[in-house]
Amino acid sequence: MTLGVIIGNRDFFPDSLVEKARTEIIDVFAKLGLTPILLDTTETKLGGVETYKEAQKCAALFKAHRDEISGVLVLLPNFGDEKGVADTLKLSGLNVPVLIQAYPDDLSKMNVVNRRDSWCGKISVCNNLYQYGIKYSLTSQHVSLPSSDIFQQDLKDFVAVCRVVKGLRTVRIGAIGARPGAFNTVRYSEKILQRNGITVSTFDLSEILGMANKLTGDDAKVKQHLEMINAYAPKGRTPNEAMIQIAKLDVVLKDVMEEHSLDATAIQCWTSLQQNYGCNVCTSMSIMSENMLPSACEVDVTGTLSMYAMQLASGSPSALVDWNNNYADDPEKCVLFHCGNWAKSFLPDIEISNAPILGTSVGVENTYGALDGRTPAMPLTYGRISTDDPKGIIKAYIGEGELTDDPLSTFGNRAVAKIPDLQNLMKHICKNGFEHHVVMNASKTAAILEEALENYMGWEVYKH
Q: Which residue range or ranges hold the L-fucose isomerase C-terminal domain (predicted)?
């Protein structure tokens, strides 16, 4: 990740504070594996930004690296010049997240030589950015040293915010097949998504299945994918013929994603695949999600968008689940379920199987490819992004809880979640017309998602 760095300065404060700040932040970036883009000490006074001419120089530097820069860090080793910071960001034309840091004063060094006044300067910088209409983020403490653990965690969280924003503004999602007729719940607006930089490419399922049917078990690509699938998960009782069907479809899906530069997919499953091709696509979806190419069933485009956002925030795979069942009479627990497409990270006991519920209508022999497995205790961030077409907006809810090891005797992909005030969360979901699908991620990243989706994407967010 590459960040632009603006070091604010005000000339009647000690120059040594600016000089030291530049050295400190370079060291912090090296420690965290980040790349800084900042002025050299020969380009402006100590590499800081105060005057309009210095703002022009810093903005020109940022423009030259605009394709690399995902966010901007503003350092205030002293009060800083608020106009210099604001003008740099305005002139650069960057539309990226901005984090404002300010140094603390040392009570034993409040003399003219060492006094910073950054506490006050940060308020002035934020005031100017607000006037300019520039969005920005704040550190968890008003002032903190770059060398401190608390600031470095803030910086890591900010980098995650930058990943989410950059990813969502350019994401390409493949909608493969038509939405199943019985699933009005997953309807969405392509136009609203496109206005937010999210591109949806549509594909006819019959064309995908037609390409898969032209392949045979003797084709080199099919053999290669079959080996990969067998290495990914035990086949259990899945017949060899079904495994070949799964591998053929996997070949085509991979080719389509590469040809169209897709970051994620939403695939028609219920029930066309089973009736017209004879297997479930769950295993392929699981493999894609595990490899950070999230895939959602039932052509749930905003579901896979939610998976992608959570993946960007955490750096780990997401899973699309149903808010499915109560857990006995515990008001803060529920059962999360899907017939079988969760990433392997959630399923230590993963096995390729079939889908018993779906099999009652299409024949169990046509549902091989679904996964079976229980998710153990782990952290939980959950959430959902949705287009609200009557309002013409994108909205979301997010929150955190825990996945537990509570007993659960059933089939498919399954988990037990414990969520504080779960009953009021369900009321919010129902009252605001959200889908029955939700996304889970093994992390604690709700604050990162809230900052990215609400502050920078401008979406309506409820954090439970």
A: 336-462
